[in-house]
Amino acid sequence: MRAEIITIGDEILIGQIVDTNSAWIGQQMNLIGLKIHQISSVSDNREHILKALSEAEARADVILITGGLGPTKDDITKHTINEYFNSELVLNETVLEDVTKIFASFNRTVTEINRKQAEVPKIAEVIRNFNGTAPGMAIYRNNKLFVSMPGVPHEMKAMVSEQVIPLIQMKFKLPYIYHHTVLTQGIGESMLAEKIQHWEDGLAMDNIKLAYLPNFGSVRLRLTTAGNDYKILLQKVDEKVRELKILIAPFIYGYERFGETPMNMSERLVKSLTDRVLTISTAESCTGGKIASEIVSIVGASSVFKGSIVAYSNTIKQQFLNVSSELLERFGAVSTEVTECMAKHICETFQTNCGIAVSGIAGPDGGTKEKPVGTVCVSLQWNDKVKSFKWRFSKERQRNIDLATQTALVELLKWMESED
Amino acid sequence: MRAEIITIGDEILIGQIVDTNSAWIGQQMNLIGLKIHQISSVSDNREHILKALSEAEARADVILITGGLGPTKDDITKHTINEYFNSELVLNETVLEDVTKIFASFNRTVTEINRKQAEVPKIAEVIRNFNGTAPGMAIYRNNKLFVSMPGVPHEMKAMVSEQVIPLIQMKFKLPYIYHHTVLTQGIGESMLAEKIQHWEDGLAMDNIKLAYLPNFGSVRLRLTTAGNDYKILLQKVDEKVRELKILIAPFIYGYERFGETPMNMSERLVKSLTDRVLTISTAESCTGGKIASEIVSIVGASSVFKGSIVAYSNTIKQQFLNVSSELLERFGAVSTEVTECMAKHICETFQTNCGIAVSGIAGPDGGTKEKPVGTVCVSLQWNDKVKSFKWRFSKERQRNIDLATQTALVELLKWMESED
Predict the structure, then answer these.
(1) 3-state SS, residue B345
(2) Cβ contacts of B238-245, under 8 Å, gap ≥ 24
């Protein structure tokens, strides 16, 4: 069983947009046990699309097509698919109703051009679009499934999750797949591999595959297995996860189970704070407000987050975060002594249970021999307890800011998880 | 003249990484007048790569290949290209020196595996890699140019800019291309089209093409022309840009000339502030520190940026930004009256020339009939002058935060540009 993706649109070829759809589709198909064999990006051109369709049909069982729908593209994909299958376009009443409803919600009436959007090839099964006006289409012929969807990411994603995956699972007998991912931080890939080598060797016996997914200072360990009895798959994998937990407990900050929506670091922290009825504030120097803005980006942040002081200059640190000039002179602005003072003070004045304080040398300038570019100090305050860290990241400014932000968030998360 | 891109690697097909390389390459090729005909992503597999190479060779003149190099991939691309061209692998002394130098900089010696990286097909011209150990290769046969590069973005980008583009321009007689882009904000695509219709109609006579590139509340207008006399191209386009400036002056916040590195909004603002020897601070509610962190992300921020108060809760607004409870009751936290007070106070206490203050309803909750989700108020302070805005963006939280941030930055930028 193989799948292919065809993306249609000049905007991808000239680099006006980055194709993020294909990676997302690749992930989703991989999760149901269907491998993407090839991705082809072609232009909004009849001959080119026809050729891509026949090439993909020769290689794959499922062909997923995105883009080239909608009135500004003259619905080139729809017309070309119609031609490829020697079908004819007919008005679909359900689609017309959907389109009319969408227009009504914007207080607009359906024009002739939009009416044309409700025409679909007779041979196709409609995949309804509840988020836009261009419908999707599914055509099943000679044991091969063709699916055409709009290129707008949120329209395409809803179609894949709600309609296309069930359709694929119905048309093809795929084995059950089960994934469980363990999220670790604070340990490199090779060190991790060494620590769990023995455990990893035992996975093959249970037909479980392990993938190391390193990403930005954290390593996700994904266990995957396939089979015909879902309950047994689940039991086998979860047992292995329990064994793993014992081996690397201090590095785990969370889990991702198959079917659950993945959460990013700040989502996890906001949830963790909400569950514990805690509030938080930040005092930031080199991260410049990024930690605060990551927290605020999460729905529900207002119930846990009160605010932040971004003290980029030392004067602000002294005036608003109670950092004395003596402390600055003795230890320097980038020191855990200073971040501890910042964390304590922000919790007191903003009256929060938790505080995160950061000071570092983001670069490219400002490094010294003792404190080179990439040196970052972080203090975490939780009621009357404090934990401090001193890291050395990279030479790149943006990378240092991003790593400081993510690592500070995850260390607080790990602290909270470990208190359970 | 056509080019194609082949990306090699399972990590793209299973969606573990998003292919950003292709969009970047597409942009660069487009800028030198070379159109990408197709992008194909294939697996780390000999037969699959061979097939992709012969298909691409049948369709295109320039074939750009990324990925599948390096020891962990067993250099699959190199071996397969070697096979495709019936060549043989030979040790290249220049590459070996480059590899040895890179290892020396990490205080490591070259292992046998790394030595193998210095082997290249005899038929290939080496494209040196100054940022990593896998060399690039160029093969020119039957008027077709094949280029293979590593998939690591910064290694590939340096190779394309410094070596591959000159090589393409040498092997193929491409016309000169000249672009000049006018950056606008505060006016929609269709309104803009209406305003400049007459001017736009006149472009064809000078063989100038216009592209509307909308992105996140701003529209970039790119003028492009091609020909054999670079000086004439430049004169023609720059004259048209001058005409355009008269028509839409209040919406222009900058220009991008072909060959100059594009700057983002915060880079432009930091440069503008630096040039004018001004300092800045921010007082943020719904953006949660994002404006501050955008400024801090720029190299050189420390000479203009002092800090920020993120006052997410009203208590913090009252205690630290001098917003009276009377003002809050009378106008509400999301009002230009409140943001003006915030902007004035942050400039005074942080002693900066400029201040940006934001308050809004990011959503999904908190909207009312008068102030629905997406309502954002911004005040800009510049010495003793203040400008205030009230916008209504979208229903999506993250989009509202991002739009508020970008629009606030660009409005200050436009203000400064207009004072010149």
Answers:
(1) helix
(2) B238/B180, B240/B199, B240/B203, B240/B206, B240/B208, B241/B180, B241/B182, B243/B199, B244/B182, B244/B196, B244/B199, B245/B182
For residue B73, what pLDDT is reported? 63
Residue B272 has pLDDT above 90, yes or no: yes
The Cα B50–Cα B326 span in angstroms is 74
| Alpha carbons A115 and A107: distance in angstroms, whole number | 16
> Cβ contact (<8 Å) for B288 and A286?
no
Q: Does the pLDDT value for residue B216 go beyond 80?
A: no
Count, in order, helices (H) and strands (E) of chain A: 17, 17
The reply to whether B54 touches chain A by the CB within 8 Å rule is no
Q: Compute the half-sphere exposure of residue B55: CA atoms within 13 Å on the CB side of its CA.
A: 20
- Judge whether B350 is closer than 8 Å to chain A, CB to CB: yes
Distance CA A146, CA A264 (A): 33
Is the predicted pLDDT of residue A107 greater than 90, yes or no? Answer: no
Per the structure block, which two tokens stand in for A133? 């006006």
Closest-CA distance of chain A to residue B270, Å: 14
Closest listed residue to residue A148, CA positions, set A59, A261, A56: A56
**Cα(B214)–Cα(B415) distance, integer angstroms:** 21
DSSP state of A160: I
Round to whole Å and give the CA distance between B208 and B227: 10
CA atoms of A322 and A337, how far apart (whole Å):
12
* CB contact A418 to B (< 8 Å): no
When mean pLDDT is compared across A91-95, A235-239, A394-398, B213-217, the lowest value belongs to B213-217
> Is residue B288 over pLDDT 80?
yes
Residue B7, phi then psi, degrees to nearest 5? -105, 135
A23 closest CB neighbour out of B17, B28, B306: B17
Mean predicted confidence (pLDDT) in A371-400? 94
CB within 8 Å of chain B, chain A residues 57-116: none
**Interface subset of A 254-313, CB within 8 angstroms of B:** 282, 284, 286-293, 295-297, 299, 301-302, 305-313
Q: Is B18 on the interface with A (CB under 8 A)?
A: yes
* Two tokens, residue B292: 């501050």
At residue B261, the pLDDT reads 73
> In angstroms, how far is CA A75 from the centroid of its own chain?
30
Q: Does the beta-carbon distance from A310 to B313 stay under 8 Å? A: no
For residue A111, what is the DSSP state? P
Nearest to A401 among B37, B52, B297 (CB): B297
CB B174 within 8 A of CB B1: yes
User: Looking at this predicted complex, what is its ipTM?
Assistant: 0.79
Lowest mean pLDDT among A52-56, A178-182, A295-299, B388-392: A178-182
Q: State the Cα torsion A141-A145-A149-A153 to the nearest 10°.
A: 180
Nearest to B112 by CA among B91, B130, B132: B91
What are B296's two structure tokens? 């801090």
Q: What is the mean pLDDT of chain A?
A: 92
pLDDT at A385: 97
CB contact at 8 A, B237 and B225: yes
Supply the pLDDT for residue A72: 63
Phi, psi of A342 (to 5 degrees): -60, -45
B213–chain A Cβ distance below 8 A for any pair: yes
Q: Which residues contact A50 (CB under 8 A, 6 or more apart)?
A: A80, A83, A84
A36 in B contact zone (CB under 8 Å): yes
From chain A, pick out residues whose CB is under 8 angstroms from the CB of B350. Answer: 316
Closest alpha carbon to B30 in A397, A211, A10: A10
Is some CB atom of chain A closer than 8 A to the CB atom of B17?
yes
The DSSP bridge partners found for residue B120 are B90
